[in-house]
Amino acid sequence: MKKINFIFKTLFFASILVLVSCSDDTEQQEPRGDYENGILISGEGASAAAGGTISFISNDYTTVESKIYNKVNGTDLSVFLQSMTLEGDNAYIVVDNQNTISVVNRYTFQELGKITEELSKPRYIAVIGNRGYVTNWGDTSDETDDFIAVVDVTTFEFIEKIAVGNGPERIVEKDGKLFVSHKGGFTTNNIISVIDINTKNVSTIEVKSKPDEMEFSSNGDLIVLSGGNEPWTGNETKAAIATINTNSLQVTSELVFADGVHPSLMTLNNNSIYYSVGNDVYNVSIGATNAATTTLLTAVDGFFYGMAVKNGKLYALDASFSDISKVNIFDLSSNEKTNTFDAPLGASKIYFN
Length: 353
What we know:
mainly beta; about 350 residues
């Protein structure tokens, strides 16, 4: 009898464990919103009447939805939608002409609030804990008033400013330091600012002209694309991809492009750097000091304005500021285009949600 009771109790507790496990699996599979598990594409817009918008494409490509912020919140974002940062459960949408950052739930796109105080031509935001660090151009005719705005992303209130050089653009964080690329706004610059978050001390690293896109490699180095001054500036300079050691803050290697070659887009994937020259995409290994000699693929027919790589696929934005843009998707095992979808007016950035 005791043996039977023991078997019964064992089976009973095993069934409870199975039920709990199934319950946990069910909870994990519950969607957090309509815009989870997909691709977000932001478009700058073109005018007050045709403002910035965001589109969603599901990972399986079966759902394509435009103007999702407008659909959820019943209002527009206006122009120009410069960038969006995904952090935690939130998305931070920077609209530079409106001096506004709209904070939404990244999965539902329901607006939670706006950051507006003390912003002046904001460009990008990095979020660390409950602090946001926003690059600002300030008065574009004044090269001395550019700054990083520090904001509280829980209360949406302004905290302080950190003065930096002209034309701060992208901003990323590693080991308590902020790295800011200075493309130079409507002029030019050739520095990366390094800001100690605790002390607010600012130092600089010199690179080639017009540094813009930056990403960290798998070993923690900062990879920076500098497009160089184009011929129309009257002071053409060389472009380069620099590798920066984030501990020593030194440039450890540099791929310098030939005269007249000005790459504009860059992204990292695994140990490869993908970059664009005109409408073509090339790739080299991280740390390479020579440019690629053959084209990987031709990404668009029109205006190549945004690029991302994930899970063996390359996403390329063919932007239009007068009509619907397009996103082309390529399989990197064959470098063949597999899909094309509509994208927002002035499509410029791609995010994976």
